[in-house]
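Figure 2 data, in text form.
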Amino acid sequence: MIHFLHTFQPEPVLFTLGPINLYWYGFFIVLGIIAALATTFLLAKYHNIKTDTVFDLSLWLIIGGIAGARVYDIILELPYYLQNPLQTLAVWQGGLAIHGGIIAGIIITWFFAKKHRINFWRLTALTVPGLAIAQAIGRWGNYFNQELFGLPTALPWGIPIDLWHRPWQYSSSLYFQPTFLYESLGCLAIGLILVVLNICFLKKQKLNAYFYIWSTALFMILYSILRFSLEFIRSDKTPYLFGLRWPQIVSLAIIILFSLILIYYARRQKK
């Protein structure tokens, strides 16, 4: 694997059918969606949620999640998209921000839970393991697009980046931190932990509202810690606030918010 990363030169196009190019980015997005669906359907029986309900929710989450991730990225890079409006549709070139997808997913799940009279936290606990696994797979699309890589490195697993994809200040550097790989492995570990916890807990215990909250918060906090840490070695442009990159600000806000939610519900349960 180390030799492969260090020597392989990724290209964005998977294969070509006449005038149509099929991209690795789209392939990994679809593969991630399939893996998320499979994970969610697997866990649905432990949450006593019907397959039809899961399918309906998943359809809305896929559409809304991709739209939210794209809109969020456009807002962060608004000057570029105002100058290049047609690029707003070029999702195969990248530009799906996970925080935007999470925000859209929370809103969709809230309304879906209200409509179907299902506990909101129960639905989020069901879906976050699949989301983590989908993120783990989807990050490989960034690798083939040669985007969201890290700072220059001399490590033996550093990845080569074409000159036109590098920031100008790193034009003389050849190898960069594979931040996509770090995040992919981290998300895979988070996803597997959540799957095991869901199965083990719900097999032995009755349905527990606090577990749903705890499981959801665990994903949000662990992913935010992972993302906050990786932002220190990312090289892509992003707004700064208080000396921190914008995704770090969002990650800190999520950690604080879900920590407070856990404390609040823990106290309620004791009472």
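Caption note: Strands lie at 13-17, 20-23, 159-160, 175-176, 240-241, 244-245.
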